[in-house]
Design a protein that fits this description.
heterotrimer; B: mainly beta; Immunoglobulin-like; 6-stranded mixed sheet; 3-stranded antiparallel sheet; 9 strands; C: mainly alpha; Cytochrome Bc1 Complex, Chain D, domain 2; 2 domains; 3-stranded mixed sheet; two-stranded antiparallel sheet; 6% strand; elongated
Chain lengths: 109, 169, 450
């Protein structure tokens, strides 16, 4: 698994002020699932993203509670209202204390 | 409403998990977590449970109305594998400060831990539209439970058949 | 002693035309390696003895012997380690015949139809449902490469006929693609009797179908995984970007790829991948991008780039991305390429393994073969539609990038034949044959598939 925490956000190219924009984001992460050995759960600190925080113009607009039953290299899409130019920021927190961040500039046409 | 500061670093973040399903608490950084209380340890995970127990734990018997007329739940009829199953949920209600979709829960009935994800939304999102890729353990009903800002609940569900085996692996 | 048909005369190696058009690379004097037979067959421990695989250890097709004398295969993590060495492989030197046609007397006894049903559905065996639909809501997912057997019992065929057919279909249907279950030792004669007993229970009227997806005739086709070139959809695209660093970083020999290939991967390698796989004069064999990197990388920069390593895969994806949108353009007029293509075609039609299958059995459409039909839950692709232009591909089921070689190696498991080394020339020439059907079609790498 290369580069845990690499994030890519995609926004539409032309955004009008006040439009509702659909954002797409992917982060490289193993999202470890519970392993079983001889029918018993292996006791270890499984590494998976358990929280996603979305902020726009430095204000939190969404927060996702995620689990091991979200796919590896998690993908999310969500909407936000593009009121002004500024930064869309998505932060992923995992169970190992990892914090991975991606940003996208919201430019209005 | 918790706030997220720019100061949170990669150092271990201890999280109290007795309140799964409600807003999660963030405790101040206490330094490196010890293995026994680490967030990802089985002891700290949601229990493996049948979906009825999950629903009870999350919604404590509150009435859940049929939301099929306003909730669009997109999922494949047949998933080629259970590892990556794309779902998209859209709720056809306005998002205003007075009334908005506060949360969308995605739950897969046959998964050992049925809740896949809880999306927490705010009016600033403008539209209740979310999507992700799920891991499914087997053919199952996938349901979207929508919680409105006034606490009312709606749900819809659909079956996703998971293809298994085959020479492609 | 190198095998004569593949050895490169020393003088030919002097005229080394390095196919990627690297203006700065030296024409090297022939080394013992380039004059040697170009690493064919299975592994260093195989009887051919002339191979020098440059793949990672789990991709070499090696067989090891345990202390108790049992042989096991060295494979990728999680793959079966069963040694299928007694069955024919794809190696050019493997002249053994297919599983011999065989017939045994039917054992006495009525057989156990319940056990027969369990055998019929058992994924460790056929499963028979991979090709044949039978009754039952729990039958998921059945295929339709073979006939629907839901009312087979109504035909009242003699039990001995069905026994012979399942034991070895070939003396009933000479051109069948159905494996010789008994002759190859997958099912014992007693097992086959139980299957016969089960088939006798398959009678009408068939219950009304409650689920259109259950029957492969009415099942919907897979819809895929969306835009393969969208980095927020395909993790392999994000992963490939890390190859740009590899390209620019100096290796142990003090050089980086970028030192000879200026301008970044996408600019320097534009168009290169459209000609691969091809015969490379310098190394005297057909090579894919993966094969070439595994030799060229260490020679020039000292960087390992072993075949099936993450570095090799990521660089291959990145180099192919440089040609995305450009048509596949193999030089099939060149005599060495044409000859290799003929050998690859022969491999495509070669029956191998315990299952006595050829690629053609699943991936061509005529004569009762499988293309366009479901094999279990998987829709079989027709080779003529082009199967390679999206490789290497992200595989959602394994969360990793697979190239053509790993995909071919995986096919070996259900065929019940030992895999060759990832860089075996047999696979390279088979890959060339498969790629010939993509000729003129635009590359779109990396793909994203199940």
């Amino acid at each position: 698994m290369t580069e845990i925490g690499r994030v890519r956000i995609r926004l539409p190219s032309a955004i009008k002020a006040g439009a509702i924009v659909k954002a797409r984001v992917l982060v490289i992460h193993p999202m470890e699932i519970v392993q079983r050995k001889d029918g018993k759960v292996v006791d270890k600190n499984y590494q998976f993203i358990n929280r996603v925080v979305v902020s726009y113009l430095d204000r939190e607009i969404g927060q996702f509670e995620t689990t091991q039953s979200v796919s590896e290299n998690p993908f999310f899409t969500f909407a936000f209202k593009a009121t002004e130019p500024g930064v869309l920021r998505v932060i992923f927190f995992d169970t190992h204390g990892g914090k991975y961040e991606g940003t996208a500039d919201v430019k209005l046409s | 409403m918790e706030s997220v500061t720019g100061g949170i670093t990669r150092r271990a973040l201890l999280q109290v998990t007795g309140t799964v399903g409600l807003s999660s608490l963030v405790v101040p950084i206490l330094g490196h977590s010890r293995r026994a209380s680490a967030q990802g340890n089985p002891a700290n995970l949601v229990p493996e449970e049948p979906v009825d127990a999950t629903m009870k734990r999350l919604f404590a018997g509150r009435p859940i109305k049929d939301g099929a007329s306003v909730i669009k739940l997109d999922a494949p009829l047949i998933a080629e594998n259970g590892a990556v199953v794309p779902v998209m949920i859209e709720v056809d209600v306005p998002m205003t400060a007075q009334s908005y979709v506060k949360a969308i829960y995605v739950i897969s009935d046959k998964n050992r831990r049925p809740m896949n994800v809880k999306f927490g939304l705010t009016p600033a999102m403008g539209q209740a539209y979310v999507g992700t890729n799920l891991r499914l353990g087997e053919t199952t009903d996938v349901r979207a439970v929508v919680e409105m800002s006034d606490g009312s609940l709606l749900q819809t569900k659909r079956e996703v058949k998971v293809t298994v085996g085959g020479c492609g692996g | 002693m190198p095998r004569a048909c593949l050895a490169v005369p020393p003088w030919a190696a002097m005229i080394a035309v390095v196919a990627v058009g690297c203006a700065g690379s030296a024409v090297e004097t022939p080394t013992a390696r380039s004059a040697q037979a170009a690493w064919s067959g299975t592994s260093a421990v195989s009887s051919s003895g002339s191979s020098v695989s440059r793949a990672i250890p789990e991709a070499r097709g090696d067989i090891t012997t345990l202390a108790d004398g049992r042989t096991v295969a060295v494979r990728y993590p999680g793959w079966t380690t069963e040694d299928f060495g007694r069955f024919r492989t794809y190696a050019y030197g493997d002249t053994r015949p297919e599983v011999p046609i065989s017939r045994v007397p039917m054992p006495v006894g009525t057989g156990d139809s319940k056990r027969g049903r369990a055998l019929f559905l058992d994924r460790r065996l056929g499963p028979c449902t991979g090709c044949h639909l039978v009754q039952g809501e729990d039958v998921w997912p059945a295929g339709n490469v073979g006939p629907d057997l839901s009312i087979y019992g109504d035909r009242h065929l003699p039990r001995e006929y069905t026994f012979d057919l399942v034991y070895d279909p070939r003396h009933v249907f000479p051109h069948t693609v159905m494996p010789p279950w008994g002759a190859a030792g997958v099912l014992s004669p007693a097992d086959v009797v139980d299957v016969v007993a089960f088939l006798d229970t398959q009678r009408g009227p068939v219950p009304a179908e409650k689920d259109v997806e259950r029957d492969p005739k009415t099942r919907g086709k897979p819809t895929g995984f969306g835009d393969n070139l969208d980095p927020t959809n395909n993790p392999a695209v994000l992963r490939a970007e890390s190859a740009d660093d590899r390209w620019a970083t100096k290796g142990p020999a003090g050089k980086a790829c970028a030192d000879c290939h200026a301008g970044g991967v996408l600019a320097a390698m534009k168009g290169v991948a459209t000609r691969y796989p091809q015969h490379v004069v310098k190394y005297g064999r057909v090579m894919s991008i993966e094969d070439f990197l595994a030799v060229h990388g260490p020679e020039t920069t000292g960087i390992s780039l072993a075949e099936e390593s993450a570095d090799n895969l990521d660089l291959t994806v990145r180099i192919k991305m440089a040609s995305n949108g450009m048509p596949v353009n193999l030089d099939l007029g060149k005599p060495e390429n044409a000859a290799a293509l003929a050998r690859g075609k022969s491999s495509f039609n070669r029956k191998v393994g315990q299952r006595d299958h050829a690629c053609a059995d699943c991936h061509t459409a005529d004569g009762g073969r499988g293309a366009g039909k479901f094999l279990g839950g998987r829709l079989l692709v027709d080779v003529t539609s082009g199967m390679t232009r999206h490789f290497p591909t992200w595989r959602t089921s394994v969360g990793d990038v697979w190239d053509m070689r790993k995909r071919l190696q995986w096919c070996m498991t259900p065929l019940g034949t030992n895999m060759l080394a990832a860089d075996a020339v047999e696979y390279a020439e088979l890959e060339m044959y498969l790629t010939s059907f993509d000729q003129g079609q635009p590359l779109s790498v990396p793909g994203i598939r199940h």
